[in-house]
Specification:
The complex is a heterodimer of chains A (271) and B (251). Chain A is α+β, with helices and mostly antiparallel strands. Chain A has helices spanning 2-15, 20-49, 79-88, 151-155, 181-185, 207-210, 217-221, 238-245, and strands spanning 65-70, 99-107, 111-115, 134-143, 161-163, 169-171, 192-193, 200-201, 227-231, 248-249, 261-264. Chain A has two domains: 19-50; 62-148 and 189-264, 2-Layer Sandwich (Alpha-Beta Plaits), CATH 3.30.70.20. In chain A, a hairpin with a 6-residue loop joins strand 7 (192-193) and strand 8. Chains A and B meet through helix 3, strand 2, strand 4, strand 5 and helix 6 of A and helix 3 and helix 7 of B.
Chain lengths: 271, 251
């Protein structure tokens, strides 16, 4: 009985003797998967060079947008926040902003007071804090950072928020189910739930304007050119010059979101 | 025959459950495409027409180039003055509708004191050098536009006092022991600085000896002024590397 079993196993082994044919066949089966990545990558490459014409003659594959903000130039007039609300029909209530301006006041002993009454649309009042000595003070315009690696897009369960080939993060308000995951996920607080559409809403870099050769509304109205808009990668772009002429920082670089909004002369108190 | 044996060999409850599971999976496979729009995934994990919808949104701000077409006289005036980079639509509001039908859609401009002060009211947070006023004391009740043309806002008279633009420094200095020293004692401002502030800059003291005119221990006549020996007191540095001249020591 036992010998019989051993004989069977021996026979089987003989059958599986490594012949050339066997070897090649097994080799191909085992390593077939190695051949797939180049095929998949090539397909993706084709996708990338594909043209996609939006509006009249705008190919998002040919652009990559970003913004520069110079803190030393911002006078805190809040015209950007006002123009943004008008351009993008953002609700008037003071909780809904696509962009807003914060005032930082740093007093002796590193006490920091940050405020943004109505997003700075009605300007700031100079209420001085009980005789404390102001060490430094400045304005910081805030906006969606249009991350290269956006956490909001990652968490969207339905694919209603996405990054376009030109690097702008957009929201499909018809497809959005209003679950608010993206609002929670954004480390910059740049999103809100639109009270009428019940969809998440955020800065689009005025996508309907930049795709037609216009500047975003906030950049258009900035009276001191504190906001600079342009291509991140093309040589002759106001943004590339801004990045060359200034020492810049992004917000929360430790999160690896790779923002495309660059701040010049930003204070360490700004988180 | 074999399949039937296999099927009968499975416990009954598993057989029933697997049928239900199979139905669910099939339903999922057939129903899913009905809920996914055709253009989803065409360019990525999103609905491609959503981008077309966003691109087609209405533009309210026209951009100031278009204003040139009719208002070239005002634009020319504006390009000479300080407001050359202040876009028309900042004060006049979004102008696409006006550009399309100038008769139907008229734009206004703010005329009260409240609007200009959004930029020009004194705030310590504003960058120094930006022209700021304290509206409570700057010709109260008078509308700004009665003296300043917003398209070419040269002050009606050239500012006499430095604090018209450098309010923050003036306030700091007013609290310091240097309050009685005029700005021009240390800074020689060419007349042109008042009309062309960024291009023609005032001078600044260059050496330790300048502060030494009052603070050197070799000067005997200025009583009550703190004195130091210029030769031994931190000779590596110039005075303003440690002392802020507009607020030399803490109060």
């Amino acid at each position: 009985m036992k010998n019989e079993k051993i004989q069977k196993i021996k026979d089987k082994r003989k059958k599986e003797k490594v012949t050339r044919r066997n070897f090649v066949r097994t080799f191909l089966f085992t390593f077939a998967s190695l051949l797939t990545p180049p095929i998949v990558l090539a397909e993706e490459k084709i996708k990338k060079t594909r043209a996609w014409i939006l509006g009249e003659n705008y190919n998002p594959y040919e652009h990559h947008w970003g913004m520069g903000i110079d803190i030393n130039k911002c006078i805190g007039c809040g015209r950007c926040a006002d123009a943004c609300k008008k351009e993008n029909v953002v609700p008037d209530e003071p909780f809904f902003f696509r962009t807003w301006v914060e005032r930082y006041r740093i007093y002796d002993g590193n006490q920091t007071v940050i405020d943004s009454p109505n997003g700075a649309i009605n300007g700031f009042k100079d209420q001085d804090q009980e005789n404390r000595n102001l060490t430094r003070s400045f304005f910081v315009p805030k906006i969606c950072n249009q991350c290269e690696n956006p956490p909001c897009v990652q968490v969207c369960p339905v694919g209603a928020t996405f990054i376009t080939p030109d690097g702008v993060v957009l929201v499909d308000d018809e497809y959005c189910i209003g679950c608010r995951y993206c609002i929670q996920a954004c480390p910059y607080g740049a999103r809100y739930l639109h009270p009428e559409t019940k969809a998440a809403d955020k800065c689009t870099f005025c996508y309907h304007r930049i795709s037609q050769d216009l500047l975003p509304a906030c950049v258009e109205v900035c009276p001191t050119q504190a906001r600079i808009f342009g291509e991140v990668k093309k040589k002759a772009s106001p943004l590339v010059r801004f990045l060359r002429m200034n020492k810049v920082r992004v917000l929360k670089p430790d999160l690896n979101t790779e923002p495309k909004v660059f701040y010049a002369n930003l204070d360490m108190e700004v988180k | 025959m074999r399949i039937q044996n296999f099927w009968n060999g499975i416990p009954e409850q598993i057989r029933r459950l697997s049928i239900v599971l199979l139905i669910i999976v099939l339903l999922f496979i057939f129903i899913r495409p009905l809920f996914i729009p055709d253009d989803f995934g065409k360019y990525g994990h999103f609905r491609a027409t959503a981008v077309d919808e966003i691109v087609a949104l209405e533009k309210k701000y026209a951009g100031q180039e278009i204003c040139f077409d009719c208002h070239d006289d005002i634009m020319e005036l504006k390009y000479e003055g300080y407001h050359k980079n202040v876009a028309c639509e900042i004060c006049h509001g979004p102008g696409t509708a006006h550009a399309e039908d100038p008769e139907e859609d008229q734009l206004d401009a703010p005329t009260g004191r409240g609007y200009c002060t959004l930029c020009h009211e004194y705030l310590p947070s504003r960058p120094t050098g930006f022209p700021q006023i304290v509206s409570a004391s700057h010709n109260p009740m008078e509308p700004c536009i009665s003296c300043h043309d917003p398209h070419d806002p040269d002050p009606p008279e050239i500012p006499r006092e430095c604090n018209a633009c450098h309010a923050q420094i003036a306030r700091t200095k007013a609290l310091s022991h240097h309050l009685n020293i005029s700005c021009t004692f240390c800074h020689q401002a060419p007349e042109e600085h008042k009309t062309n502030p960024r291009e023609v800059l005032p001078s600044k003291p260059k050496s330790r000896e300048f502060c030494g005119q009052c603070h050197s221990s070799t000067i005997s006549d200025k009583k009550g002024i703190p004195k130091i020996d210029l030769i031994t007191h931190e000779p590596r540095y110039v005075c303003w590397q440690c002392h802020y001249p507009h607020l030399p020591e803490a109060r």
